[in-house]
């Protein structure tokens, strides 16, 4: 499987790779559409499987007859953690975290709410490769800056006009 890692500007910035997509997100080539469909279907299947596992865990709590408080607590914890994980994952597709240390501290919460992260991955893959918008913005900015720097160096340096020096 060949992936397009060529930049429109030789020697310029190279695009980052995305999980499951490589650099096909740049030109939407080499099976990009099929990959998106596959990622969406895979995320949905894994989400359903995770929900079934959570259901079995809840049934185990019910069979253990630990009381309604623990059952409500179980549902509340996984519901809240899934909601937080969904929001954090969704925001992570649009922008880099302002505080990476804070994101690292929320990693266990996102692991508990893994169903929310899977749902965010599924919904994002319906419109684009998850994280594509962020990487496209960064890549286009880098290419623009590279072209600007490269254009500023064009020409013969000896032919440039030198500013008049101020003599005292």
Features:
7 helices; mainly alpha; elongated; 168 residues
Describe this protein's structure.
This protein is an all-alpha fold and 168 residues long. Helices cover 66% and strands 0% of the residues. It contains seven helices and no strands. Helix 2 packs antiparallel against helix 6.
Task: Furnish the topology, listing elements before pairings.
Layout: H1 24-27, H2 32-64, H3 68-94, H4 100-105, H5 107-112, H6 114-127, H7 132-152
Helix pairs in contact: 2-6, 3-6
Shape: elongated
- Helix- and strand-based class? mainly alpha
* Rg, Cα atoms, Å: 24 Å
Mean pLDDT: 85
Main sheet summary: none
Strand content of the residues, in percent?
Answer: under 5%
Uncertain parts = 1-7
Beta strands, count: 0
**How many distinct helices?**
7
Order of helices and strands: HHHHHHH
End-to-end Cα distance = 67 Å
Helix content: 55-70%
Q: Would you summarize the structure shown here?
A:
With 168 residues, the protein is mainly α. The chain is 66% helix and 0% strand.
